[in-house]
Amino acid sequence: MTTQPYLHDDSGAVRFWVDVDGQSVGASIRKETLHYRFAPGRNDDQPLATYLANADEIAEAVRRRVAAGSIEPVMLREHDLPPPAR
């Protein structure tokens, strides 16, 4: 198993792992969610690069979901991420 984030082409999602209280929790976020939340005005964004540029914020969203009772694998959706600052 890899511990590096990667784009899973078949699902169209970036898969990654987040440390939650010493446990490695698997999670994913679809490329459409990344685009919608982090690069809505672009048409050339790359899902893995977009994930890497925002990994800290995405990891916090995973931790919130786990704290709320989600189990692995955590699939992040648009409503899991706060809206962008305006």
Walk me through the topology.
Blueprint: E1 6-8, E2 13-20, E3 23-30, H1 31-38, H2 47-53, H3 55-67, E4 74-76
Parallel strand pairs: 3-4
Antiparallel strand pairs: 1-2, 2-3
Helix pairs in contact: 1-2
* Strand content range: 25-35%
Question: Number of folding domains?
Answer: 1
The average pLDDT value, as a whole number, equals 92
Query: Regions with pLDDT < 50 over 5+ consecutive residues?
Result: none
Would you tell me which CATH topology applies? Double Stranded RNA Binding Domain
Q: Could you give the order of strands across the largest sheet?
A: 1-2-3-4
CATH class: Alpha Beta
N to C succession of SSEs: EEEHHHE
* End-to-end Cα distance: 39 Å
Task: Tell me the CATH architecture.
Answer: 2-Layer Sandwich
- For the report, how would you describe the main beta sheet? 4 strands, mixed
> What does the overall shape look like?
globular
C-alpha Rg, in Å? Answer: 12 Å
Assembly state of the chains shown: single chain
Task: Please give the share of residues in helix.
Answer: 25-40%
Please work out how many helical segments DSSP would assign: 3
- The total count of strands amounts to 4
Could you say which structural class the secondary elements and strand pairing correspond to?
alpha+beta
Considering the protein shown, what is the CATH homologous superfamily?
Answer: Shew3726-like
